[in-house]
Write a structure and sequence with these properties.
This protein starts with a strand and ends in an 11-residue tail after the last strand. It is built from 4 helices and 8 strands. By secondary structure, the chain is of the alpha+beta class.
């Protein structure tokens, strides 16, 4: 038996992902290339290899219950003083993320959380106060809108880099109209 560290997240589409990755790099965040821009559904979790088939089956069942939805990112927020994090905030799609997260974090992924769930996109983490302030200010007017059509299972390698393993397309009712 062997353990691995997984996470479940909504990956951001291009060009939004590339824009926010570049911003994170400009703030000097060493995790900019290791952590793809995302909205966390399940934080880093150590699981046994033998559990992966059950976890993937669970995630597929969850994806079948949820419809694609729109997210609008707008402005910045921070978890200071509790945690040295600056993030781009969600203006729409919050309740969809909350329902999806609650459903994903059941069954084989049921775990207690350290903090209440708050969907966001991290752009600066554990940096100097000046770098955090700069991230908060420079992205205060950031705006982007995109459709969430899937979420993914990610795995962290031995160097701390996160890699997508499998996508789970959202297949529930109320799918967006064509062209969206």
């Amino acid at each position: 038996m062997s353990d691995r560290t997984i996470g479940v997240a909504i990956g951001l589409p291009e060009p939004v992902a590339g824009e926010l990755r570049k911003w994170r790099e400009t703030f000097g965040d060493p995790l900019a290339r290791a952590v793809p821009p995302h909205i966390t559904l399940v934080p880093p979790t150590v699981v046994d290899d033998a559990e992966l088939p059950r976890i993937e089956a669970h995630l597929d069942e969850v994806a079948a219950r949820h419809a694609p939805f729109e997210i609008q990112l707008r402005g910045t927020g921070s978890f200071l003083p509790v945690s040295p994090v600056v993030f781009v905030a969600l203006a729409t799609g919050i309740s969809n993320c909350e329902r999806l997260e609650a459903d994903v974090r059941r069954g084989p992924l049921s775990r207690p959380l350290k903090f209440y769930y708050h969907p966001h996109v991290t752009v600066a983490h554990e940096l100097t106060p000046e770098a955090l302030d700069r991230a908060f200010t420079e992205l205060a007017d950031y705006r982007a809108t995109f459709w969430v059509r899937e979420f993914g299972l990610f795995e962290q390698d031995g160097d701390g880099v996160w890699h997508p393993q499998r996508a789970f397309p959202l297949r529930g009712e109320s799918a967006p109209t064509a062209g969206k």
